Amino acid sequence: MSLGTYLMIDMSVLYDHADYPAALVNFNNSNKWAKFQEVHLSVTNHKCPICECSLKVGELLSRPSRGKTKQCIIESTVDHYRPQKYYTFLALTHENYILMCSECNNIYKGCEFPLFGDNPVRATNPAEISNEQPLIVNPINDDLFDLFELVVRHDLSGRKVLELSPKHEQGYRYEKALTTIKLFSLGECELNAHSNANVKTLRINLLHSHFVKFDVFIDAFMNKNIPKMRAEIADKNLKDYGFLKFILKNQFKNLV
Ligand SMILES: [Zn+2]
To answer: C-alpha distances in angstroms, 220 versus 63, 118, 228?
Structure first.
């Protein structure tokens, strides 16, 4: 099958994108990192590369609010992968910019930037960056297939969710995947998620909506029904999702 290059969502093609040089010129003339927003969105098919929520302009998402359901827009943000709080010297380094939805950026990641190791030393200049082992995934640089696998399971209320799990069982790559999953509540949300109940519910709702999107496709995949798989990919725009490639690579567990 012919596939896109997208996964959870792999952004490794970003710097080769035809629009990147123009965005860089605009940025250099303005020092506004929002100048990269459109080219990042183009690479991710207008999705957050972390949680894969839609960032299409005007698309509404249901979220709980005081016992009711409210429709809201999740905005896209371009911000620093290594936060300015610790890395002021990277404030205007374009390779340090990363696209996320406003939920992932502001509610989950914030200024967090944990490093691997017992007493990790934080870089104080660009030359020291390569000595760091960050514990937050970077979809532009990291091999996502070497960090995560996809899991279908029941949440505590019995609904099915599509979520991430570490691929490895120990070591740096395990810790990086686990820290990312916990920080962004991309797996076992009931245990890991944000202390704010509304935010927790929003995340579980999102992972459930991902399952609903892939439900029929997963069934067709398990039954090796290629025509049905093709039809689902076309009908539901599944190529826009990073999750798709995890399933096709069989890097995927069905626990229900
Ligand atoms: Zn997100």
So the answer is: 30, 45, 6
Rounded to the nearest angstrom, the distance between the alpha carbon of 48 and the centre of ligand 1 is: 5
Residue 71 zone, left/alpha/beta (φ > 0; ψ -120 to 50; rest)? beta
Per-residue pLDDT at 114 exceeds 80: yes
Separation of 127 CA from ligand 1 center, angstroms?
30
Give pTM, 2 decimals: 0.90
Kindly list the domain boundaries of the chain, sorted by start residue: 14-254
Tell me what pLDDT residue 198 has: 77
Tokens of 233: 């990919």
CA of 226 to the centre of ligand 1 (A): 31
Going by their DSSP bridges, the two strands 68-73 and 60-65 should be labelled as antiparallel
Is residue 78 within 8 A of residue 96, CB to CB? The reply is no
Residue 85 token pair? 């709080």
